[in-house]
Task: structure prediction
Amino acid sequence: MAVFVFLFGIGITAQAQQIPVEFGSAVDAHGIKHAAGTSGGPSFSDLIFRPKPEYPYSERARHNEGTALVRLDIDLKTGNTTYVTLVQSSGFPKLDEVAIKTLARWRFKPGKWKEAEVPVTFTMSRRGW
Result:
């Protein structure tokens, strides 16, 4: 199970995979950019609220897959996401829209991060063959 994906079984059951395992990168309160997985870098433990994107049925039915890279501007005082930018499209407008709308609701622990880039991957996977 990879970053937000979904399962696609023998009877063609599909399910959205959940959000990424790691951030792409983030800019801290002092303006220093950190890569995910590095010492002092961003992690999901820095999040207070992080709903996961739903993989739209219409996109699963068409087997549309892709990764959207989304940049979040974060209010240092509140930890709320204040602005969301699509850095790179998944190639499918509906998947991009779901990624943007979901990550816009994310809330971080205040005072640590002012920007984050998060890849959101939508993938179909087959099981039971």
